Amino acid sequence: MGAWALAVIFAIASAAAYAAGAVVQERLAADAVRITVLALLRRGRWWFAVALNGAGGALHVAALAFGPLSLVQPLGVLTLVLALPMGAALARRRVSGRAWRGAGYTVAGLVVLLLLISPATGAEALDGRDATALAIAATATVAVLMAAARLSRPLVVRSLLNAVASGVAFAVASALTQTVALRTSETGPTAMFSPIALVLGVMAVGGLLLSQMAYRNSGLGAPLATVTLSNPIASAVIGMVLLGERFVGGTPGALAALAAALLASWGVVVLAQPEPLDPRAPSDPGTTPKRQPALV
């Protein structure tokens, strides 16, 4: 079996693990709306979700060991495609046509966007100044998004803001992971106890907790699509500002990337819209039937 075939297999397995982790997190959020996020740490299913996300990360690293980033990264958007039927099967519901359309827009836009990004030659580690600047900028960005989410009255807006913060945190953790890995190979295991490694851990855990908060009151589709979208966009910004990455094709490529990002964003908007009321659903007198989330 060729190296690229192994890369595809590992990338798809990574997407499936991430999707299963997202589904478990969303079900936890749906079952424990009145429980604080920190209280979830005492639940076994939360740690199962953590294990699934960890497995997804490990499989992603394995995929990158056999194939280029330009092949592996676009396959990561399969997380959204796989999570929708997984979540529907667990809830014993069907995925609506609207949800599939929203997922399709998001996936198509993301694939085009990722294919238009030209990675820098070889893997690069951030120097101390760039890593510090990234940590400060990321902390400020996540804090602002969390504050905006807390002040937002519509639950969907609050969910999507937390999802964006989660995607940013995961993107920063990925960038710092590469830096710590390269420094470990050069200077030994002491690099794993550096301040950069500490920020990496905080961002990774923070991204997981923020994604858990995003799934509350909003179903699975829109928050997961937002995390899936904001992560590569934040990674692209980090790559272009700090690692010399550029869009393929110069200005036309940048415009095409903008159009792709807008298409993916429209997919999130479609997923965030509530489904029409089901007239067959029974309701008690004097109560207002609830709209279904965009998953079903």
TrEMBL record:
Keywords per UniProt: Membrane, Transmembrane, Transmembrane helix
TM region(s), chain numbering: 6-25, 46-66, 72-91, 103-125, 131-148, 160-180, 192-210, 222-242, 254-272
Chain segments carrying region Disordered: 277-296
Entry superkingdom: Bacteria
Record's protein name: DMT family transporter
